Amino acid sequence: MLLWTGNAASFVGFHNVRIAYPLLVLTVADSAPMAGWVGFSMVLPSLLFPIPAGVVADRWNRRRTLLTCQLVGLAATGLAAAIVLATPPRIGVLLCITAFLEGSAYAFFGVCELAAVRDVVTARQRAAAFAFLEAEQPIAILIGRASGAAGYGLARWFPFAANAVSYLFCLATLSTMRGEFAARRPTEPGPDTGGSTRIWAGVRVAWSEPFLRFTTAVTGVSNLIIQVVILAMLVDLTGAGRPAWTAGMVLGAAGVGGLLGSAASPWLSTRVGAVAVYRGALCVWSALLLPIAVSTDPSVLALCWCGVGAVGVTSNVALAVFAVDVLPPETLGRAIGAISLVTQGGGALGTLAAGYLLASLGPAATSKLAFAAMLTLAAAGFAASRSVRAAPV
Predict the structure, then answer these.
(1) pTM for this structure?
(2) Would you tell me how many other CB atoms lie within 10 Å of the CB of residue 272?
């Protein structure tokens, strides 16, 4: 519970500034492409570091790694707060640097946390444990996005100060935990292999499972589309002259849906199965993006985005439970890192592409393009999934 409480608080702070960064750039620089670059800088580590993070999770002391990540994140958000207060020239470039540092800490933390949770629960508890873990994200999205947008309306530095407090709280909880969450070592003795060999071992393990290979590729593309939709809604809502809290309410609705999804996901994961859950997720996502593409009503956007969050958490839990059941414990961190390289990397590229799409097409056309892309992906993914079967566990 200490691990979950501290991490949840830290994730709230992270999503607090994740919405504040683009709002700040849109206000100060009035540039959607620069907002995209700042957002890309925050998620770029998810493209660069998942596999190295997996090596760290498998080989190093996990508790110390979690503490180090929190210290790096605290330093980055403190620097960002100072930049906001000083408002120096080229503020967008400076914010890209702080966003990259904080995103790096987040990338290492996420992989290490997942590996640590696996060590402290039994096989029967995994579905519930990962549902509990996935609940961190919707809670963070719900509270973080809403409070981040509202806090930004009070003072531009406020979200960064709140994020610093969340890091301090997480450091306190991690420091009081007992146990070291020591990384698993190979069960058979043998000479230590080089770093590149250890990295590619995780890639090979993840690639060898057909269902994981399929869902990883499709999830990478869907995450790209979702990030485009997020920035399109943000630009549309702020450009219409609505208060900042409106954007926080709409985007934070995904947190409400995520909580609903986390409640239903243990049953769905164990009774329905990962293949059926993932097929359904692709279809429901496509249906929910249609109203978003044709409406500018914040209530409609919030309701649909709530559904997007529910489906996302449900599919994430199903895939996480499947992964930890079929992947070898000694390469779990590296295999998860390899999967995250594609899934989170898609989101990173989507954040960058969104700024330029919005600058050239505008939010309305960009949202329609995203819907068409998701519909095409769902059709292709549903057809391809017929030939892919999850291995028995």
Answers:
(1) 0.70
(2) 15
